[in-house]
UniProtKB/TrEMBL annotation:
<dbReference type="InterPro" id="IPR016040">
    <property type="entry name" value="NAD(P)-bd_dom"/>
</dbReference>
<dbReference type="InterPro" id="IPR036291">
    <property type="entry name" value="NAD(P)-bd_dom_sf"/>
</dbReference>
<dbReference type="Pfam" id="PF13460">
    <property type="entry name" value="NAD_binding_10"/>
</dbReference>
<protein>
    <submittedName>
        <fullName>SDR family oxidoreductase</fullName>
    </submittedName>
</protein>
<dbReference type="InterPro" id="IPR051207">
    <property type="entry name" value="ComplexI_NDUFA9_subunit"/>
</dbReference>
<feature type="domain" description="NAD(P)-binding">
    <location>
        <begin position="7"/>
        <end position="137"/>
    </location>
</feature>
Length: 248
């Protein structure tokens, strides 16, 4: 089948394209780099012609509240409209475990709005909720750094390898629409501070990581288990230490 992957040249999207191609599908990356711009609509009608499935793993170039909300509102609206006109039968979107619990953050407000638009579109859909990626430990640290100290909330996290996320998205894309949400997470639960320490150690980053009960996660105050998946989540195989060993 023809599967158009919006954001198909990024970390997750490029892996989704490769995996689908390996299984004999026509996987087409769609991004500004390939002449497709979901913010303006440029190239959408052409790339969606003959597509059975659209996978949206795109992300906002800016995490500022107003910018990210505008990105997901406009991009998702344009994409869903073009899909309806092209007769696409399955819309798959990548989102985040705990999005509905992270509404103190402008970014997650935007992701929730995106999910709501998809659910209301009338197009059969599947939403894949993933936990934080191994690769983004540094980004988390950077968002919470002052001087040489990283201050995080005393919460738990169950991070996942990006390749396992791509595999889950690919499986979902070639399956029947679930008209709901599936969750995917890594096999190990960490305290957030321990995950960030491990992630920084992979890069030989010597910043100090401390906890603060008032610490935020991308601007949101969290309960201890807000980032953890539910009991029905699909658990991926790659352990953090296995991944980290391959980065050295």
């Amino acid at each position: 089948m023809k599967v158009v992957v919006v954001g198909g040249t990024g970390l997750i999207g490029s892996q989704v394209v490769a995996r689908l191609g390996e299984h004999g599908h026509e996987a087409v990356p769609a991004s500004p780099n390939t002449g497709v711009n979901t913010m303006t609509g440029e190239g959408l009608a052409e790339v969606l012609r003959g597509a059975s499935v659209v996978v949206d793993v795109s992300n906002s170039p800016s995490f500022a509240d107003d910018a990210v909300k505008e990105f997901f509102r406009v991009s998702t609206s344009n994409l869903l409209k073009a899909e309806a006109e092209a007769g696409v039968g399955h819309h798959v979107a990548l989102s985040v475990v705990g999005t509905d619990r992270l509404q103190g953050s402008g970014y997650f407000q935007a992701k929730q709005a995106q999910e709501d638009m998809i659910k209301d579109s009338g197009i059969p859909y599947s939403i894949v909720h993933a936990t934080q990626f191994f690769e983004f430990a540094k980004s988390l640290a950077d968002s919470a750094t002052e001087g040489d100290t990283v201050t995080v909330a005393p919460i738990k996290i169950q991070p996942i390898f990006s390749g396992d996320v791509a595999a889950a998205v690919g499986r979902t894309a070639v399956g029947a629409p679930v008209n709901g949400t599936v969750e995917v997470a890594g096999p190990d639960v960490f305290r957030l501070e321990d995950f960030i320490r491990k992630g920084l150690a992979v890069r030989d980053d010597t910043r100090t990581v401390v906890t603060d009960p008032n610490g935020l996660y991308w601007g949101a105050a969290l309960q201890e288990s807000d980032l953890l998946p539910g009991a029905d989540a699909r658990i991926a195989e790659t352990h953090f230490d296995e991944w980290a060993a391959g980065q050295r």
